[in-house]
Specification:
The chain has eleven helices and nine strands. The strands form three sheets. Strands 5-4-3-8-9 form a five-stranded mixed beta sheet. β4, α6 and β5 form a beta-alpha-beta unit. α1 runs antiparallel to α5 and α5 packs parallel to α10. It is globular.
Amino acid sequence: MSLQDDSTALRKDLEAEIGDKIKVLDRETEALLQSGIIKTSLQVGQKAPDFTLPNATGGEVSLSSLLEKGPVVLSFYRGEWCPFCNLELRAYQQALPKMEGLGAAFVAVSPEKPEFAQLLANKQELTFPVLTDHENLIGRKYGLVYQMNSEVKAIALNFGNDISKRNGSDKWELPVPGTFVIDTKGVVRFAHVAPNFMTGRANPEAVLDILTKLSPPSPPAEAPSSIQQLSCRRPLHAPCSESEKS
């Protein structure tokens, strides 16, 4: 099954659990679509803002250092508490060997504190960097940040998800899920921003297609030299007959 198939099934499960409250989430999605956030977020052809962010294990990761080695796939997600984010990141973990085979790195970013990033990495068995963007400072530069409305906030709290405590901020802000492919010059070559956080995420296959186009072509096989073509077992001073040429 594709990521879209899995996320559609997950949405049906959520709707069965919360009933008509799913319409609250749908209204927020529609409001984000109407806000024009897809057009005002970072676009293909623009320069990706650099960053240095803490990872889940206490270190730091910078975009510029990753780009020195190859293209970067950058994914902004809402948090460990979001089952749709977990589904997406598992799909990219499965695609990670192919991405690395094309010379690319994958990095996930959310506003959650590092302990929740570590929890996510452990639970989902993620091997790529999971970074913390405190106060959504980087997400804001990418044009992704929005304020959760009071109805959605109530649903989150009903599930035991206090976003303010998880993010270490009282703003109740989140990034719209966004996936960017950035080439080694720091230019965005693919951008997918998904106000529909449930079923609108970028498929790993689409990202792999872009990475394949960015990957340098394999060098052509060398043709055998004329000396090899005319080699024979006779001494150099004796000419070869046609039947003796290999």
